């Protein structure tokens, strides 16, 4: 490992096989935390490559606990986080809209590490018990077509890495890898990343990992979601093809708005924002969710175009179906809590 650490510290990219070896080392219980921190910091300083991300994702996924789900077309819309722009939990809100439109959502997520409120933090503020068992997660996904997979529940090897990441307090390669390690077999993925210049590479990682169809987006100022604030950079993975394109809000019939209009806060504040969106209160918050859910519906293949996907996303909200998905997950969670307390 000293040779590989030395290469990274010198700014040299690792080959796929070398990163497989390094990833195994990262997850060993006897690897010193300070060495993990140094390695992750050096990787970030030189800039991670598609092969490094794919190799780490492969190893991390191999350590994940299996979730036994029925055969089906599942999608994850988890983003990488780490953009530092303090927006609300866009992808978590979008997950309910996608589920309300008929997409089977298995959303990976975690607590805040480099943000004000991670997906698990806002879910708990909404009354959703995130630390449910794997069989309960599978049952919820089968029953409601949506479930949230709390990373520590399915990635037991992540505990020590998580401690290191929290001590660093800034994005690492694990932000990039997180969305790629969902233990549910995914047919489709919609992922936002905070690096506009890495969108094509990230799409190639998804292709390497076997996604038949996927979309990667990076918004203005490096937002890890699609934004109303300007030009969004995207790549569509469609079997063997990687198709780059760009998009702004007006292209799909939405009004542009600055990033300041979608600022978030702590978990409780973001939960209130989400409840207002799903209740149909018109705002840039709602339009941002509609834009992202619309892209997700196109990626899933349920909409022929993103503009059509945006219309479907609006229908999911204004019909009440998205809110019903939230209520169903909250109810399921409360029933589990009552059994545990009883």
TrEMBL record:
Binding-site residues, Mg(2+) 1: 91, 225
Ranges for domain Glycosyl transferase family come to 73-322
Q: What family does this chain come from, according to its entry?
A: Belongs to the anthranilate phosphoribosyltransferase family.
| Cofactor detail note | Binds 2 magnesium ions per monomer.
Binding locations of anthranilate 1:
79, 110
In the UniProt record, does the keyword GTP-binding occur? no
Q: In which pathway does it act?
A: Amino-acid biosynthesis; L-tryptophan biosynthesis; L-tryptophan from chorismate: step 2/5
The protein's Enzyme Commission number: 2.4.2.18
* Gene name of the encoded protein: trpD
Assembly description: Homodimer.
Recorded source organism is: Lysinibacillus capsici
Pfam families attached to this UniProt entry: Glycos_trans_3N (PF02885), Glycos_transf_3 (PF00591)
Name by which UniProt lists this protein: Anthranilate phosphoribosyltransferase
Q: What is the lineage of its organism?
A: Bacteria, Bacillati, Bacillota, Bacilli, Bacillales
Q: Where does anthranilate 2 bind?
A: 165
